[in-house]
Amino acid sequence: MRRLLLALPFALLPLAVAQAHDDHDHDHDHDHAHGTLAAHEHGVASLNAVLDDSTLELQLVSPAMNLVGFEHAASSDADKAKVAAARQQLEQPLKLFALPAAAGCKEDSQELESPLFGDAPEADDDDGDAHEHGHADVHAHYQLTCANPGKLTQVDLAPLFKAFPATQKINVQAIGPNGQKGLETTPGKAVVAF
């Protein structure tokens, strides 16, 4: 299943490139590669959702700014408390992702990674100092098993937007029984149908 989730960005690459080009903002003055799947943009997160038989995998990647309000190493007690509170919320995926109760989904496993959680800096950071560049992401990966996967027709992201109000948009790539799709969710349009 993990191979399927990891293949998802490549399966939807043409869609992501087209969307990135269409949504591209030309009013900035720094260079970046066109069509990158993991662009770091405050207020924007990404979610890969794969439903395969009875297994639902969710992979959320978000700038730390969206979740805790900063991206530097937490040194003050207030910052450490914000990081701990965000981590506690992220450890409860069934409260962040509203799933139909009839689907009977239960969490099997989760992985949370971020320099803010004391993890090593991200692999794509050349010199190992994600904090000095001002960019730190949070990666959350969840695997759930659903007793009645036929009843899992949608995932509602409204609780996630409510828990982390600085998140204004989540770009979703989904694979389910009805095929694959990419869509943009917002607090007012937060439902992802499978």
From TrEMBL:
Pfam families: ZrgA (PF10986). Residues 1-20 form the signal peptide. Keywords: Signal. Residues 108-134 are annotated as: Disordered. This is Zinc-binding protein. It comes from Pseudomonas cremoricolorata.
